[in-house]
Automatic annotation (TrEMBL):
Tagged with keyword Repressor: no
Signal peptide: none
Protein name stated in the entry: Aromatic prenyltransferase
Any one of the GO BP annotations: alkaloid metabolic process
PANTHER family the record matches: INDOLE PRENYLTRANSFERASE TDIB-RELATED, PRENYLTRANSFERASE ASQH1-RELATED
């Protein structure tokens, strides 16, 4: 099922992005052999499906484009949650078996995958007992993503700190901070300037409450990897977006200001907010994935994080057609 549906769309994206025939075959072979068999039962009427947090309709895979600046061709990517054939049933109510099996498949398919940080964060963020149910508003435990270049496939892993935080009676940020400070190549505080800035911003009384959803790493050598913390704010005005992107004015530079001006144009187009004051919030959306999702990205040794925002078209745009039209006009 997943090969015939998602594999078909992936093939179209690779073609439209200009990948060579050789790269398309290599990527589609990887998808068909190593990914499609680990996405659970078919998304068909009557199927007892695992309620994956990957997408709002619970599909365990999400395809995406990375449009680069200049004339460079776009990069295709996808993210997944490994799902067992019996996930969500009485046989495997918490999807406990899928990830262990998928890890073995992944290491065979991508033997150059580096596990040093993966093993550390997997242990540091795993609760003492296997988590059950939806204590975080969803039951998902781990995601993987893959950047598909012309020459190679690079993996990423996404960990959820909330399960460990709840079992140890800590905040998600406290659990993340401990995991990061004890990671290989991160024990020296001088290498964590970017994280310290984020930590200070998150704990500032003037900062609205932030929900720490995930920690992501690249599955490469720690010296080459990024750390990314995904956090959600329920405030939805563009003024709040500016506050997040600048870390409360802790990050100031001309390129960021230019980027915020461009972002406001895209924001206005996609969300139909032209002429709306910066401090006016978007219409209310009472949903687990409501509000606005961000990620702050840094490497050990960097002094300030790079902050990205995910424009919440799913909950706040007038329609899919409106989004397509607005993107076309912006680009």
């Amino acid at each position: 099922y997943w090969w015939h549906t998602t594999g078909y769309v992936l093939n179209l994206l690779l073609q439209e992005a200009g990948y060579t025939d050789h790269a398309q075959r290599r990527i589609l072979t990887f998808f068909g052999r190593s990914i499609a068999p680990h996405l659970g039962v078919a998304n068909e009427p009557g199927a007892q499906r695992w309620p994956s947090f990957m997408t709002d309709n619970h599909n365990p895979i999400e395809l995406s484009w990375d449009w680069h600046t200049g004339k460079k061709s776009p990069t295709v990517r996808f993210s997944i949650e490994p799902v067992g054939p019996n996930a969500g049933t009485q046989v495997d109510p918490d999807n406990q078996s899928a990830d262990a099996h998928f890890r073995k498949v992944l290491m065979q398919a991508l033997p150059n995958t580096d596990r040093e940080w993966f093993d550390h964060f997997d242990q540091a963020l795993a609760p003492d007992l296997p988590p059950k149910g939806c204590m975080e508003g969803h039951p998902s435990k781990i995601f993987y993503a893959f950047d598909l270049s012309e020459e190679d496939i690079t993996g990423k892993a996404y960990f959820f700190p909330g399960f460990k935080a709840r079992t140890t009676k800590q905040t998600n940020l406290q659990v993340l901070a401990e995991a990061i400070r004890t990671a290989p190549h991160c024990s020296d505080n001088e290498k964590l300037g970017a994280f310290l800035m984020f930590e200070d911003f998150a704990q500032d009384p003037s900062t609205p409450p932030l929900e720490m959803d995930m920690l992501a790493i690249d599955l490469v050598r720690p010296a080459d990897s990024r750390l990314k913390i995904y956090f959600r704010a329920r405030e939805t005005s563009f003024a709040s977006v500016r506050q997040m992107m600048t870390m409360g004015n802790r990050i100031t530079n001309p390129s960021l200001e230019a980027g915020l001006r461009n972002l406001r144009k895209l924001w206005d187009g996609v969300l139909a907010q032209t002429g709306v004051p910066d401090d006016t919030p978007l219409p209310a959306a009472n949903h687990r994935t409501g509000g606005i999702l961000y990620n702050m990205e840094f490497r050990p040794g960097s002094t300030a994080p790079n902050v990205k925002v995910y424009i919440p078209a799913r909950h706040y745009a007038p329609s899919d057609w409106h989004v397509v039209t607005a993107l076309n006009e912006y680009m």
